[in-house]
Design a protein that fits this description.
The complex is a heterodimer. Chain A is an alpha/beta fold. In chain A, the strands form 2 sheets. Chain A has a 6-stranded mixed beta sheet, sandwiched between helices. Helices cover 39% and strands 26% of the residues of chain A. Chain A has one domain: P-loop containing nucleotide triphosphate hydrolases (Rossmann fold, 3-Layer(aba) Sandwich). The two termini of chain A are 36 Å apart. By secondary structure, chain B is an alpha/beta fold. Chain B has 2 domains: 197 residues, Rossmann fold (3-Layer(aba) Sandwich); 70 residues, no CATH class. Helix content of chain B is 36%, strand content 25%. Chain B contains 11 helices and 11 strands. In chain B, the strands form 2 sheets. Chain B has a 7-stranded mixed beta sheet, sandwiched between helices. In chain B, helix 4 crosses helix 5 and helix 5 packs across helix 7. Chain B is globular. The chains are: A alpha/beta, B alpha/beta. At the A-B interface, helix 5, helix 6, helix 7, helix 8 and helix 9 of A face helix 3, helix 7, helix 8, helix 9 and helix 11 of B. The structure holds adenosine-5'-triphosphate (2 copies) and magnesium ion (2 copies). One adenosine-5'-triphosphate sits at the interface of chains B and A.
Chain lengths: 265, 289
Amino acid sequence: MALLSVENLSKTFQTPRGAVHAVRDVSFAVARGECLAVVGESGSGKTTIANMILGILAPTQGAIRFDDHALPSRRRPEHRQAIQLVQQNPLSSLNPKRSIGASVRLGLDTYGIGDRAGRWDRVAAALEEVGLPPEMRRRAPSALSGGQRQRVGIARALACEPELLVLDEPTSALDVLVQARVLRLLNDLRARKQLTYIFITHDLAVVRNVADRVAVFKAGELVELGETRQIFTAPAHPYTRGLIGAVPVVDAEELHLRNTLAGEN
Amino acid sequence: MTDLLDIRGLTLGFRGLNGYTEVLHGIDLSIARGERVALVGESGSGKSVTARIILGLLQETRTARVAGRVNFDGRDISSMRARPRAALRGTDMSMIFQDPTSSLNPTFTIGRQFAEVMRRREAGLSQKACEARATAMLEEVSIPDPARVLSAYPFQLSGGMNQRVMIAMALVNNPKLLLADEPGTALDVSVQAQTLTLMQDLVARHNTAVLLISHNLGVVREFADRVYVIYRGRIVETGPTAAIFDRPGHAYTRALMAAVPRITGAGLPEVPEVSDDFLAPMVTHPEAT
Ligand SMILES: Nc1ncnc2c1ncn2[C@@H]1O[C@H](COP(=O)(O)OP(=O)(O)OP(=O)(O)O)[C@@H](O)[C@H]1O
Ligand SMILES: Nc1ncnc2c1ncn2[C@@H]1O[C@H](COP(=O)(O)OP(=O)(O)OP(=O)(O)O)[C@@H](O)[C@H]1O
Ligand SMILES: [Mg+2]
Ligand SMILES: [Mg+2]
């Protein structure tokens, strides 16, 4: 059964220069324990969909169901805890006046996770899981590198013990070694705790190796949805073929796959 | 001819709550005019701070201590006064920051911010001229509706659109050196490819040199003439791009290459343990002739 489903979801922004149809009539479902990758062109509505799932934005049309209940537009605390976001932009998502530790701790206090005395240690443990030393708790966000901030975002979301994690470009600022470690950690947690991921990214090589299924968006519409292996070996939509054909690669085998797919256009 | 940028023995440390921590331990790095150089390596190893030193920003930060020589276009940035140093930013050298929101002002429209950048070069530029040039530049980075974007505030644009705006702003004054810190992370691969091609064109047409900082080794391979690999504040390997990719000599570089996820899908790569070999001396590949 699906943990989350979105049904005929649309979002239109009104601007002085007219309406922007950011998301148009999108439907899909994610099963418990699944990792669904969301890819597509820049501005195609991926973050807007994430924000509607999180309850940050209200849909113009359509419904979102979680655990077989329709989600109200004003979320209850248990929903806010169950659905956590790792934001695309690590700097703007951290309060510059709060220490890293205080930022991570905020969720624990809000949702009453663990006893008060143990929370500061929980914060250290959460940071440790993403490869950051406990002393970083006292630092300001501005004293961290881009990749370190991104890991704080992941630690903060995981510390809230969510069921569904919406990850918006969670590893784009990490070197490939740290990225591999964080992706392995996410994979392990998903298996161990039956977590469900919606994984938004432009990195198709990452998608190939972590996602069960892939949803491809273009101009606010869902143009293709399928099993990862099938998307990468026999993409149906020309837009998907074009995307895979543009991936920068490092070895000959990859180059061959890319050229084969590009050749079919 | 001398190099456009020549860095020797650069060190950097921060004074903090836990005392003094050294972050850069003596970096040598040079870029010729029109050359495309990539700086790759560990997260937290000192790539962004190096770029901020080249821009002269960290020299103005109270908690930072910078030493060593940074020559740009025949002048030593570190010993320059704050004013002429600031005048170089956004004109002769410009930067695409890793974090779009840190360089775009949330309270001004994109159009107004563009005009500000262009007037750093040409103070008297008319509103009309600014708009025309900004529109042309936005089209070059494949923004479909430049008029909407110029009248928008950053929060009304997607992450990738903001990043393209920054790229366009960084290039609009034809700088001699472009510092590009992760310019493609928020872009889809087709736009990323277009952006790289655009940056490549620009380099060729205007002899702009580029320091590209990126974790995407595929992008680096396709873009750069030469590569520096940095680990914990030290350069561990340097050479022409092909040599680094075909014959990585340093243990850290080899570990990096092995950890790149592949679109052919062999699963997530094994993560090698951090090894003492990562601290081995620098490997230098001879220049291709
Ligand atoms: N608050 C807003 N007001 C007006 N338009 C908006 C607003 N937020 C987003 N948009 C527009 O909606 C569209 C979709 O934006 P969204 O951020 O969802 O894209 P995205 O797929 O996440 O792109 P990226 O990969 O670049 O992050 C864009 O055209 C954007 O300009
Ligand atoms: N203001 C500061 N005070 C103290 N330490 C700092 C400060 N700014 C940066 N650092 C530290 O300096 C080191 C280098 O940071 P830098 O931002 O250059 O990393 P980077 O190589 O760009 O990493 P990433 O790939 O994650 O962006 C990091 O360990 C960071 O925590
Ligand atoms: Mg987005
Ligand atoms: Mg950085």
